[in-house]
């Protein structure tokens, strides 16, 4: 059983195995009689789809979560969201810490890769800090959201809704207890802003939050390059997304056309933030203009920052490639960012992530277009949303046939593991041929 | 006038300048009173669009070429197709040869880049061989096509149609003298096969044809790596495209659904060959299934082989990246193709071409979706078709607003110059900073 020998496994395979085990357990938990409401029994495929969506913090659903699941079912989903959001690795390290077992070098190596920490020594410390940070932020978020919900519901319900949406937002999961996501709250400033800030904090990555805290509390006044790049690209993408959304939907009566300018701007900001990976929506997706659909596909594909709860190819991957292209145009030999130069190895990994992601997404889109009948734009949107673990949909998720549901389930999982795992595979598994072949040139372009 | 000093210009800029001058002259020629039929006067933008489409061998048209232009107008278009197909550089070298002027090293360098010849010494010889080859193939093609057309029209007209379609097919231009391209001949085997073989010969690249002739006529029994890769990828793409088209459209009554199996296969073969860059169609594009639309976008984007009359990012660029990805999956350190390894520099150029092309195409699609109203799939299809100099359209070309027409005109030109020019720029213009910045790592994926 060579392939089941954990000690010898490449970390990327261990990560995959943990996800598979968690999905397997979760899919049966969600099938328990007490998890669904009367008359709403679900098929195993639906359960599998829902729990994968939860642990991959995607948020796509084939059934209406608010109606189909009991409080118990919703709690299971919430737990798996939290599990996925924290990263199974950091969660399992918590278990290790709790039972007092020292983390071995091998375990630490796995953790390190899930969290993108820079040196092995910091891992234990980092995990503690992450757990603290996550619960602190989610707690504060829950208070604000509870206050927001109190206007329309009694205290107990407002607290439950506050906690659920705080965790779901910070983990960039996009699950909501409302059938229409947050469309009913598109003009509620406190809900919009709380959710947006939870998403931003969850999606910016622990490295940036950590650097920020260090910046404020200690004398270490230097952001590392990853943090700078993540912040820079996140801000640019948020502003560009917000501006284009406002422009494209300004006169669309089905989305923000009939709001006043203030709420138009709030809704545009909210939708720009949430589209990159969180997946809540305050305006209906099926009614967007074609330009917005295309814009959203690009934003969903890029996604959040590394070491965060979000998906996509990551802001830093996009940033490295963008700086490279700018460098080409300016005739530079090095890739220069903020008075530093990047190695070609980093560029090659970034390009490999991009190429493999594009190839994978294109293949799944083609398969779904061939074997299902959901429409051209709808299919592209759905697949990119699943791959970026975003969870937005033009409304076709429940209409998919079984083949498409299986493809989307796999895509959510690969989207969660994917680019990172590929990056690792690139960094680790290279093996030189015993005999190298002679070199030959080839004409391209 | 530093920027107009030809001797100091980078070759890529000279290439651009020649195209611009040719387009400028052609756009006025096409405005001459004798070029258009009575009552069908065209605007300058239409003239500019049409002549750019001709010289970039794209074939997109905002008016019905068969009805709007007189024999003189059609001749102008044909001449510009031939000019574009041969490459303005090889054409200008012909002029040099005819007037007995020796080609200077500087001129040869330009030619070399347009033709992708491997060493400067071969250029003069190569140009002669290209001209010979092109006219020989077009002559033979014209004979077959004339025979095909004779069944439905008198001799004189059949000859004119034969010559026009032979040149247009070999140059992968996609211009047709029929309003519905070759839809009326979807069940005519001789026309289909002649056009398909002209397209294949025109799109496989002179290097491959040259190697093949050497293989047959001399003792030099070795294909170089470029030829092998171009042939291998072309065959794979043709077969995959043919198979998927057959599968996707098998039951579509608006395309091949009502043909018998033999003609279904002929039409699938023809459409697979023509989609990668030629742009003729024997079935209506607007009626394709969404899966076929997506498949065609991928095929159009990849395009033909280098040193050919076709466009796209090129089969070899796609091939280098594909072999790289396969190598990653198999854990190899080198990129290995046919017992040879490729340099990382080649891979970087291929990836740069891909990334810049994707970024450019996405930007144009987004702009057209924002400022025009042609539909999601229609816009993506149109832009990819223009960039790949394919010329297929879902029927929206004449409905575009002025802004879109300008964007598509620019995109046809960039598509013709683009990947090649980028490849050159990458190889040539790199300049090292006086002071290199210190290196820093960044987390991606
Ligand atoms: K999500
Ligand atoms: K063409």
Write the layout of secondary structure elements.
2 copies of one chain form a homodimer.
Chain A (H helix, E strand, L loop, with lengths): L10 H19 L14 H12 L9 H4 L2 H16 L1 H11 L6 H11 L7 H28 L4 H16 L18 H16 L1 H12 L7 H25 L11 H15 L14 H13 L12 H15 L5 E3 L2 E3 L1 H28 L4 H12 L14 H27 L17
Antiparallel strand pairs in A: 1-2
Helix pairs in contact in A: 1-2, 1-6, 1-17, 2-4, 2-17, 4-5, 4-8, 5-6, 7-8, 7-9, 8-9, 9-12, 11-12, 11-13, 11-14, 13-16, 14-15, 15-16, 15-17, 16-17
Bound molecules: potassium ion (K) (2 copies).
The site of one potassium ion (K) has 12 residues of chain A, from loops.
Bin the strand percentage of chain A: under 5%
Specify which chain pair forms the largest interface: A-B, 85 and 85 residues
Q: Strand arrangement, largest sheet of chain A?
A: 1-2
Number of helical segments with 4 or more residues of chain A: 17
Could you state the order of secondary-structure elements of chain A as H and E? HHHHHHHHHHHHHHEEHHH
Largest sheet of chain A: 2 strands, antiparallel
Give the averaged pLDDT of chain A, no decimals. 79
Small molecules in complex: potassium ion
State the low-pLDDT regions of chain A, or none. 91-105, 114-120, 425-433
Helix content range of chain A: 55-70%
Helix/strand structural class of chain A: mainly alpha
Kindly give the count of domains of chain A.
Answer: 1
Oligomer class: homodimer
Rg of chain A, nearest Å: 22 Å
Total strand segments of chain A: 2
End-to-end C-alpha gap of chain A: 46 Å
Name the shape of chain A in a single word: globular
């Amino acid at each position: 059983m060579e392939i089941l020998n954990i000690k010898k496994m490449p970390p990327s395979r261990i990560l995959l195995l943990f996800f598979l085990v968690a999905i397997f357990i979760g899919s049966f938990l969600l099938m328990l009689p007490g998890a669904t409401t009367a008359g709403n029994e679900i098929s195993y495929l639906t359960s599998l789809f829902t729990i994968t969506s939860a642990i991959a913090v995607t948020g796509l659903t084939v059934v209406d979560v608010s109606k189909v699941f009991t409080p118990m079912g919703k709690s299971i989903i919430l737990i798996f969201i939290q599990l996925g959001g924290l990263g199974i690795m950091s969660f399992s390290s918590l278990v290790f810490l709790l039972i007092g077992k020292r983390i071995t070098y091998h375990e630490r190596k796995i953790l390190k890769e899930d969290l993108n920490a820079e040196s092995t020594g910091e891992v234990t410390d980092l995990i503690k800090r992450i757990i603290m940070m996550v619960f602190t932020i989610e707690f504060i978020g829950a208070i604000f959201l509870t206050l927001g919900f109190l206007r329309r519901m009694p205290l107990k319900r407002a607290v439950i809704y506050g906690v659920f949406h705080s965790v779901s937002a910070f983990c960039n999961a996009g699950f909501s207890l409302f059938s229409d996501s947050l469309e009913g709250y598109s003009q509620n400033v406190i809900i919009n802003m709380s959710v947006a800030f939870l998403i931003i904090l969850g999606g910016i990555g622990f490295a940036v939050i950590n650097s920020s805290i260090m910046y404020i509390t200690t004398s270490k006044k230097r952001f590392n390059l990853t943090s700078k790049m993540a912040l820079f690209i996140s801000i640019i993408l948020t502003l560009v997304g917000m501006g284009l959304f406002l422009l494209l939907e300004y006169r669309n009566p089905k989305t923000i056309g009939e709001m006043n300018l203030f709420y138009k701007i709030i809704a545009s900001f909210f939708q720009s933030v949430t589209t990159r990976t969180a997946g809540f929506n305050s305006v209906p997706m099926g009614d967007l203009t074609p330009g917005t659909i295309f814009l959203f596909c690009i934003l969903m594909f890029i996604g959040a920052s590394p070491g965060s709860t979000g998906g996509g190819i990551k802001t830093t991957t996009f940033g490295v490639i963008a700086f490279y292209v700018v460098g080409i145009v300016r005739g530079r030999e090095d890739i220069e960012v903020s008075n530093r130069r990047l190695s070609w190895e980093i560029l090659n990994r970034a390009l490999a992530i991009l190429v493999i992601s594009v190839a994978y997404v294109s293949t799944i889109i083609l398969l779904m277009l061939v074997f299902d009948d959901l429409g051209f734009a709808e299919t592209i949107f759905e697949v990119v949303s699943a791959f970026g673990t975003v969870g937005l949909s033009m409304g076709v998720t429940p209409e998919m046939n079984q083949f498409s549901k299986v493809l989307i389930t796999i895509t959510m999982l690969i989207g969660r593991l994917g680019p990172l795992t590929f990056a690792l595979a690139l960094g680790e598994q290279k093996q030189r041929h015993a005999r190298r072949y002679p070199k030959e040139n080839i004409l391209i372009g």
